[in-house]
Amino acid sequence: MTFNYSVSPDDWLGIAPIVVLVVMALVVMLVDLVLPHEGQRSKHSGPANFTVLPAVTFLGILAAMAAAIVLFFVQHRAAVFNQMVGADNGTLYADLLVLSAGGLGILLSPAYLKRLRLVHQGEYYALMLLAMTGMMLMASALSFLIVFVGLEMFSLALYILCSFIEQRQMSQESGMKYFLLSSFASAFLLYGIALIYAASGRTSFVDVQQFVLKQGGHAPILLLVGLGLLTVGFAFKVSAVPFQTWTPDVYQGAPAPVTAFMSIGTKVAALLAFVRVFGFVLSSVQNDWLPIIWTLAVLTVLAGNLMAISQSNIKRMLAYSSVAHGGYLLIGIVISGQAQQNHIGASAILFYLTCYLFMNIGAFGVISMLERSDNSGYDLADLRGLWYRRPVLAGMLAFFLLALAGFPPMAGFAGKYYLFYSALVGGHPELLVIGVIASVLGIYYYLRFIAVMFMEGRDTPRVGTIPTTSGKIPTTPRTRVSGSLSRPLPSSRGGTAVAEKPATARVADLPVPAAAVIENENTHELEGWSWLALIIAGLGTLLVGVILPFWLPQLQQAAQSLLK
Amino acid sequence: MPLSAYLIMSALLFTIGVIGVLIRRNPLIIFMSIELMLNAVNLSFVALSHFLDSADGQMFVFLVLTVAAAEVVVGLALIVSIYRRRHNIDVDEMNIMRG
Amino acid sequence: MTFDIVSFIVLAVATTATALGVIAFKNAVHSALSLILTLLFLALFYLQLQAMFIAVVQILIYAGAIMVLFLFVVTMLAPDQNESDLKDAIPWQRIVGGLLGLVLVAALSYELFTGAQITGPKAAAGNSLTQAVTAYHGDTQAFGMALFHGFLFPFEVTSLLIIVAILGALVFGRRAN
Amino acid sequence: MTNLSLWVLLLPLLGFIILGLAGRFMPRTAILAVGWGACGLAFLCAAISFFSMLATPAAQRTSDQVVYHWISAGTFSLDFGLLLDPLSMTMLLVVTGVGLLIHIYSAGYMADDPSFWRFFAYLNFFIFAMVMLVIANNFLFLLVGWGLVGLASYLLIGFWYQRRSAVAAAQKAFVINVIGDFGLMLAIFLIFQGAGRLDYAGVLTHTFPAATATAIALLLFVACAAKSAQLPLYMWLPDAMEGPTPVSALIHAATMVTAGVYLVARAYPLFEQSPAALAVVAGIGGATALFAATIALFQLDIKRVLAYSTISQLGYMFMAEGVHNYSAGIFHLVTHAFFKALLFLGAGAVIHALAGEQDMRKMGGLWGRLRVTGLTFLIASLAISGIIPFAGFWSKDEILGSVLAYGNQTGNVWYYILWAIGILTAGMTAFYMFRLFFGIFAGDYRGASVAVNDNTNGDVEEQEAAAAGHHHAGPVRYNSIHDVAPVMSIPLIILAILSVIGGFIGSMALFGLPNWSPLANFLPAAMHNHAAEGSLTLEWISTGLSLLAGVLGIGMAWRLYGKGFAFKQNSNPLYQLVFHKYYVDEILNAVLIIPVLALSRTLSRYLEGDVLDGGSRGISTLFRGTSTFMRRVQTGYMRNYALGILLGVVVIIVYYAVRG
Predict the structure, then answer these.
(1) What b-and-e string marks burial along D2-15, b requiring 16 or more CB atoms within 10 Å of the CB?
(2) For residue A86, which phi and psi values (nearest 5 degrees)?
(3) Residue C121 belongs to some domain of the structure
(4) pLDDT digits (tens, 9 = 90+) for A158-171
(5) In terms of domains, do D545 and D433 share one?
(6) Which of residues 18-37 of B touch D (CB under 8 A)?
(7) According to CATH, what is the number of the domain B3-90?
(8) Per the UniProt record, which residue ranges are transmembrane (chain B) (predicted)?
(9) What residues of D are in the C interface, CB distance below 8 Å?
């Protein structure tokens, strides 16, 4: 088949959502060319850039979602392009997850970009779409080739998106760290693939599975090393300990909408590939890889939660919490390797990802509305008394944090419950116990942030200047500028204060009153997008845990079809 | 030569690349070390393709090549843009965020 | 000793030496030049393994295009950058990293040596490379057939990768103004 | 049977939502209308359901109503349902009834607080959570309620978050409650593993293997001990007195802390399967009762006396449950809710009148100024001391009687000892309650003159210094003290009446009226008592001795403090031991907290410098310390991160190399 496979329309039909996304990415770039960039009026004030592009992008995502949903009902092949790409129901479900994450991320973007006065946005939205394409590719991969290409594709797009904000040192640093470390890790992944190829002689999942089944439970050593290195690559993307180090720095430095999107999308892509390879392809040699994944899961769950406790910056706290959530998801991988339990583990992962999607994007979405242009404004001190300044925002953040902590009836509870249930059914009660201990730990740091928001911040001087009755003004020009000048930046310890100077000076140099006021007014217009995203995320958080369980049997079926 | 010779050669090159990433501070050289790692893997792939008599390995090499090209474009552009801002590209200087 | 073995050993020594050069030279330009040499030697390896097309591509794209880009950037930035001027903030990293690297190469070599003794399964008839090379009259033709049939999809995806790269260059390049 | 339990659950939630969203914009009257209305209507619904239940034949009094059919996949199913039976009915009445009175009282007590609305929002939230806990029909939603009441308690203890001590207390309560929640979660998973389901109807009729049953029962009891402040998890309750006094009355005396007692009664078939676990319950209960009573003997802060007394009384309830007399435990829970809420509210009235003063040494002679408070406080003190015919007498008598009867039945000497402990504790209870009463109301007013030497009780000083919400500007002059407004005195009077007559709902078998025991007949419909029936002689012995102990205690208090309380330094080591609460806090500090703090300080100093601010204390410091230590891994250096990745790789590779 290698030399004479011929592509038919069926093949393209199977990847319809991806095709739609790619076409829309090209359309976005074209539309960007047509939009007025130069002219009499300042680029900043023209609203076209800030609304047209996200609208087009969002439509594209809706179209891709529609394509995926239609595919659920249309008869089509489960694997296309010479057994390289999956188009089964499980894959389509994962596609929907990526698309939802991307859609919410894009809804959060306009107000954010406006606040930063980023004019050239065609690339931003096109890159978001392409990153989603890459994630969907990796999630649907049925061949190591596609795993690698998809992974590289969304990684590349994310490097650029992370360092998109030129005026922020943090953004650049985040992009740089992500770029170097991710390339480093994918080299290991690639090496792992090479060794699996060395052992089995094939690169497509089905063939490798055939080979592994023939080994009678004893994998040859090359396969073992190969899967070990493969684990490294996947674990890096899932941010499992000890490969998690990049996560907090990158999440903190990246623009908040991008963080929101990537924290989910990356996990969906990596976990789907993970569960396919380990839960299905390699499940017959489970004894060989179980110790490693088990250790990773336990380390990640414990270390992620522990490290989150002492964070005073909510973006970093959420980054560590996302490490911890990655750990819970790894429990699903362990279970999916169990013979006869593949579908339970895999469906627990899909279910948990769905729950996690809405609450995490919601939390980051609130942060994206709080963030100031110098990447501050979400420290513990800044959140103090938020309830009295912006009650709705604080309420939503508290809601999402409670959901993340796993309080019923929000989605986080249902997801965790089902995951732990699967651990019990899959014969790993110890993971259940560890998971429960860790989530109890987790409640502590989420509650800490919630408590702070509901405290009246009498002792913080800034709050005194804002009358508590007019809760709607988050960033009056005065607050913003004085805030960024007088307050030491959260991380400016040691010698880094010097490095931060340019960013601070920039903000100060602005013609303060006029520009800031205009900016705020326009931002206000665009905040509708963000609110929409928050409302969707909130509803999702509430409903997923309540409604989705009705379809658990279908979800299990879909999960079973991940590799036929 | 037997397959293992090529594979060990590849492992050696790969490790040299790994060490380069760990000990150098210039992102350009780190980046070159990563390229070295990728090329080491490519050597494995070509050798395997030859010994296993399958085209998959060569196909991988071809893809890795393209990926590397794309990565280089983005990476170098990023490094240059950082250099323009802070006139310094030492990776150890980039530690605003930590903890 | 046959020619095969001699050439392998010579190439292996040369490649290792130049690869070490990449990470040892203080000056980034030297490192880049050393990397170009390494890539050329690798192309010779590919020739030895009868992968003609890959060898040519390696020279053209890697050594020819990518590394030129590298050299360009290095010469643009390198003069200001002298690593040894600044004190290393984490000196222990060198030692630990080196040791870990040694452990890695030792363990890997051991595993590869024992593992590669078991010859992997040969490709089935329909996927055999040698058969395809004879059928399509040559390595490059066989490669092309595989690329446009069995591996069409990943090949198409690389075009997207290039688009992402172009967008990246656009984003970072525009900032310079 | 009319079943309005869903409304009992939803009304407080509605109140909470309204107050939470719009409370800050509402005038006080509107806040009160919502807060009182939600709780009052809930009480009304509960009462209607109760009378309707009384009219139903005993066999049909249980209603298991599935409200929402949630998850169902294979063996995995989850429903949300409400279980209304005599047990949950009793609890509902107590929760909403006492809750309503405390809502009313709070309107006066919190009148000056700037966060008036927030307080009522939290109170409604608590009522909702507690009702959820009580009427859930499965263990999972029990856990939900369990967690939510903990959250509410956390919020309310830390209500005056400007006080550092309040925040520390909230943290302590939180950490200990988390231990309990953890036990409950494990128990639930064990139950699920064993029975395959979580609803009471299925689980409580299921027979577990003996070892599993013991494990489940013990884990459940860990949760109960944490929630109900039993040894060794009692430390949080005295500190929880940092919250506003109505909160102490509602949550930390009448309702939430009794959740453990409720859970044991609810899950009694599980406990019945494990005699060992029941023995633990009885033993811990007795030990706690005695232990806490001794501490209460010499406390100076009036709220702390009451807190330790609560712990001690909860011990009684567990003691009853440990000897299979679950309905006696619930009975004592009910009467205790009346008189302890009354005591706390009375203490609150005193504190209110003295502008935030809680130190007994600065009180005295208030009988002349606070008539209503004094009288009701006296009634409550008599009730808790077990003086006939007040409420506490009946319930305590039934507990002690059944312990003695059980000892007699089994012939186990430990139960006689337990009974003796109960009698002794009864005497001590009477003593410290009247010490408190005389300290507050008898003698001369000491507030204006005494300058307290600060080496005696540091806690009191600290609270005074930090007291917020009450503008504490020096001692109040005697003549300016005046009794509470009607909004506060009416709940006191109602509770006082209940403390007098509340006991008559219980057993009157003592006086040859075996059939006149409404509660004891009401509850067994839900639970078949396995309590031992003692002979009348034994009952008389027990009753007589406990009454005697009570009278002796009061007499001693009269002798010592009848002329007014006088604080004397006493260097007797035993006294010092008890006075300092057995040094538990100090020992914890020395054994756990200080070393951890020191360790993490040293570590962080060694690694970077100033990191750990001394502000965070408590057991959470342990985790903080670990966390702070671990985040040092995140150096910010890209190359370090790469090293971490390589380390992982090498471990994996070497693992496979060694394993082959």
Answers:
(1) ebbbebbbbbbbbb
(2) -90, 145
(3) no
(4) 999 999 988 888 89
(5) yes
(6) 18, 21-23, 25
(7) 1.10.287.3510
(8) 6-23, 28-48, 60-83
(9) 635, 637, 639-640, 643, 646-647, 649-650, 653-654, 656-657, 660
